[in-house]
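Input.
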Amino acid sequence: MAQEGTGIGPIQVIRGRPGWALAVVGLGLVVLALSAVPAWLLHSRVVGGEGYRTLTLGLNAWQLKSVPVLSLAAVTAGLAGIAAMVPRAQRWLPVMVAVPLGLLAAGLLPLSHEAHVTSVAVTPGWALFLALAAVAAMLALVQRGARPPRAMLIAAAAVLLAVGAAGGIGRFAQLQEAEAVSTHWSPGTYGRQARAQEARLTLTNTTYASGPWRGALETAGISIILTGDAGCPEARGFYHVRAASGDAILVEKVIDTCADGDRAAALEGTWTPIDGGTGTP
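Output.
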């Protein structure tokens, strides 16, 4: 008759682990699950001119200004939880948990950028605070359950400070680069495939044209402002134009109410130069 507990399946592995380790695993999985919730950061853009003035987006850990700091926080929290199930890794758990804790703390730093046409503010959301509490609880459980030596706790504190500082600096630099005032395109004609046919976008220093849409163009850094379109003469469109891969450009809508979004649908996306235009980061 086989003895109980001699198997090596997942149930036996779990039964052989202390309660604190299972709790750490659970909290790590909670952080991973939370990473998909669009409430880690609140991205608010204030746009001057007519129409809507403020656009606020809730971001999860894998979107826009959350990447890479909060993405890494979610991944490393999950890995630290899994490591709690490995006896040989448990002595390193304070340092492992300190990494996502520092990254999440960096996410609490409110950021802003002021430009001629738009201003941006990035602030923490409720999901970030919940993830931070979960990782802090992981560290407390590790300290009580694994009883790490003092030297390991000192190392964890040093890692926490270093990662937090690096994450904060990285987030600030990322926002400044994303909202940089340099123009990322040059006048010319661009093309792409759209609905089984080639679409074209022509940009000059003062005008734009793409299919039925055409009017005046004003530039302000990475932003372009569209006015005077016969299809919606009272509407203004605000877009960001960034350099994409190679010489291509990426057109991103900020706000455009023209024709219930039809102009935005025609202009948004990646465009490749056909004649003269290039992406110039």
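The two ends are 71 Å apart (CA to CA).
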